[in-house]
Amino acid sequence: MIKSTGKASTIARTLMSRTGFSSSGIILIAILAVLPFIPPFNSEYILRWLVVGAFMAAQAVAFDLTAGFINVVNFGFAAILGVGAYTSAILANTGPHIIVQPGISPWIGIFIGAFASAFLGFILGFLTLRLRGLYAAIMAWFVGIALLGLARTLTPLTRGSLGMSPPSFFDTPSNMPYYYLALGMMITIYIVTKLVTTSHIGLAFKALGQNFDAARASGINPTFYRVFNFTLSCFFAGLLGGFYAHYFVSMTPKAIMHTSKSVETLAIAFIGGRGFLWGGIVVAFPFVFLLEYLRSALPQLPGIHIIIYGVLMILVMIYYPNGVAGFITELKKKLWRLRKPEKT
Amino acid sequence: MKENTEVLKTLGDSILEYIKRKPAVPGAIAVTVVIAIIIGIAGGPAQVVNAIVAGGMWALLATGLTMILGVMNVPNFFHGESFMVGAYTAYFIFTPIHLYLMDNPNKFLSTIAPFAGFFAAAVIGFILGSILEKLVFYPLRSKTKERWVMNSFLLTVGVSYILSNGVNLVLGPNFRGIPRYWDVPPIKFFTIRLTVDRLFAFFLAMVVLLLLWYFMGKTRTGRAIRAVSQDEAGAAMVGININNIHTLTFSLGTSMAAIAGAALLFMFQAYPTVGLRPLYYAWYVVMLVGLGNVSAAVVGGFIVAFLQTATQQFFGIEWGEVVPTVVMMIVLIVAPSGIFGSEVKGIQEQ
After folding, report:
1. Residue B315 forms part of a structural domain
2. How far is the alpha carbon of B118 from chain A, nearest alpha carbon, in Å?
3. Cβ–Cβ below 8 Å for A143 and B348
4. Taking the model in full, what pTM does it have?
5. For residue B349, what pLDDT is reported?
6. What pairs with residue B235 in β-bridges?
7. Is B91 inside any structural domain?
8. Which residues form the domain of B287?
9. Burial B213-246 (b: 16+ CB within 10 A, else e)
10. What is the pLDDT of residues A236-271, one digit of tens each?
11. What's the rounded mean pLDDT across residues A120-141?
């Protein structure tokens, strides 16, 4: 009896570690799941911040898959997210302002959008194949500029800078279903990326990120792994783009595809910690709360949140390159060392 | 007579040899000339002159960018913000003088008033560059050199957003511009009408580039900068203060961007995100000619300017960013180290 429960707990533990959940992670998710029912958070206004937090956290996880593992900073991330958003929005369109009116349900369109983004990620992976660090980042940046320019230029499809107003997912004005949808997406993205990165594929990613030539010399196929990484990361970006389109129900090329949006994601992912995946989740919620609070408390100071992002990012990059997740991991290790002598 | 033909022959041989070694260089120049002729036929010679003026400015911007890249290995993302700071400085220096001159006309003062703006922009740009270098890049450099290129790039991204949003916070998003620096009628040259401002902007860019060329080639400090860009450890060994050289290079690059911003104030009004397009064009030039290749950046500036003018001429102004970006993407795929060849060590590896 005792033996079998021991076995069950080891199985549970391996399952948890494979999918990337420590016990504190489970507690965190549980807290996030019940948060909308606890008083200060159950107003629609605050709930909206929670949705934005989950959305930003999911973005940071998808972004970290490329930035933290194969060490290529995808400056076109927001633009590719925008492609997912626009694809889904155009497919759901029934209004007269755009030349096509397919009227496909957002629930299907979001996946088509995600596949469109994944296809672009596939192309981007091939484009940056021969390029290292900085060159690849600049290539992704150029791709982002070109996509933003296209979204502005193809006015029959996107209405250009006027923006679109796609239909929403749910018929209710409540933010509750959106919050659980965003949270579900965040957890799914996290589990999938964690499963990928804890397998041999993740090992190959890390090897390619640390030393490209050595990894190639030891038999890792850079083409496959880099393209696979970009495709997966951009698929999630497209999925999140679809969520953006049908949650905020208004979008302009600048508000969604601009490089500054990529930089916001980058800041959250890097302050959270490169290569940890969950760092972005830990950082995104308090950050969104702090910044939304600042925005509502100090409306006379527009753009102060970007300045705070920038300053924090610079401080973290110079003085603590592992970010918040690295700090927590080290703290845990120290506590573990303190506990161990008592046990023996 | 015979000697002369000999010399000519060897010269021709060496040119042919160069073309064989680097076929992209004459190819790019030939394509640019063809584009220039097509623009000239389709849009009139005024378009060609405008492209040349813009080319001078992109050359100035790209030279600063590529110098910082070559000496410090910092890919500067806030070069556009230095441009913005220069534009604001020139505006705030020039406008009060201009208003004063409206009440008390003075021919001599109104001739030299713009120079005060340019000079102030250069100084403020220099100070900004040194402060940021000491505040941001020096700590990172003394901490770790690992993954320096990428980390410093991300730092400059952070600085860029802090600067543009900081200016937005302090001065607001309104546009501040001037119609012209010199209130004189445009110069007529055959059928081309050229304003003095444009002519002077081009002239200023060329003078600054010449001064830079003299500084880098003939002075002790310039030679020290080149030594650091070639071999940092060796330069340190012969007694060059690496930290001072880095700060100086960075400040010079920032200052050049600020001068460009000041000189183009009549074209680009000053507002917080004015630096975005100049930043794009400077990066196009640098990626086109190869990272850290200072002399080729001058040629690249003109190539990009013609490409930009041709795009606006044949595709329309809304395609102004798409077409050059796609061209640069193709260049990056075909020749990642640029058509003139890269001269920076250590960037490919990181």
Report:
1. yes
2. 28
3. no
4. 0.85
5. 47
6. none
7. yes
8. 23-334
9. eeebeeeeebebbbbbbeebeebeeeebebeebb
10. 999 999 898 888 888 888 888 888 888 888 888 888
11. 83
